[in-house]
């Protein structure tokens, strides 16, 4: 158990809908990262937050947004969902402000299925 | 550009065999970090090891060992005396400096099947 929690574990929804994925980092970790794992794209970095501020963006679609709250939990919002958004979404956390010296510990993931 | 290549898509071995998973990386950074993660059938990503680019010493942890060679840009992972519980997808990842330091660049993964 990495100490990172994600809810829900599974989410099934329809095209055009909006969903929110939630992540709680390990106790004491200030950084939260979101990744998407799909069959065709593999594991891809989406976005990084540190202590409430956005620090880096990766291959994140404009239909997707995220935020980190004062209690450090984070939410990833996916809107106008398409079939191709079906994937496993991981949240990871690390102790510091990001940077390669901090190992990222991953949550169990949320499996999103768009029908 | 940064890139991680895991050329072996799938490997199948019989229990107790040794197996090596290959990882080749590309980066222009002089300081960078390499990682291995394990993804068992349950789906979570489990951190295994981190190496920085200045430390080329091989590392051993129980049945696991890692061989880092900057000359060939490789960071290979060997499991000695494999067990059925080692069956998983293994990912090699790279992280650099500056703008590249906030994200992990993952390879496509190697699926390891250990048969009893």
Distance between the termini of chain B: 41 Å
The low-confidence parts of chain B are: none
Helical segment count of chain A: 0
Oligomer: heterodimer
Helix/sheet category of chain A: mainly beta
Biggest interface, chains and residues, is: A-B, 26 and 28 residues
Shape of chain B: globular
Using only C-alpha atoms, the radius of gyration of chain A works out to 13 Å
Total count of helical runs of at least 4 residues of chain B: 0
Number of E-type strands of chain B:
12
Q: Helix and strand succession of chain B?
A: EEEEEEEEEEEE
Largest sheet of chain B: 6 strands, mixed
**Percent helix of chain B:** under 10%
Portion in beta strands of chain A:
over 45%
Distance between the termini of chain A: 31 Å
Q: Which parts of chain A are unreliable, with pLDDT below 50 for 5 consecutive residues or more?
A: none
β-strand percent of chain B reads over 45%
Find the structural class of chain B using helix and strand composition. Answer: mainly beta
Describe the structure.
The complex is a heterodimer of chains A (115) and B (116). With 115 residues, chain A is mainly beta. Chain A has strands spanning 5-7, 10-13, 19-24, 31-38, 42-50, 53-57, 64-68, 74-78, 87-94, 105-106, 110-114. In chain A, the strands form two sheets. In chain A, strands 2, 4, 5, 6, 9, 10 and 11 form a seven-stranded mixed beta sheet that branches. Chain A is globular. The model of chain A has no long low-confidence stretch (mean pLDDT 92). Chain B is mostly beta strands and 116 residues long. Helices cover 0% and strands 51% of the residues of chain B. Chain B contains no helices and twelve strands. At the A-B interface, strand 5, strand 9 and strand 10 of A face strand 5, strand 6 and strand 11 of B.
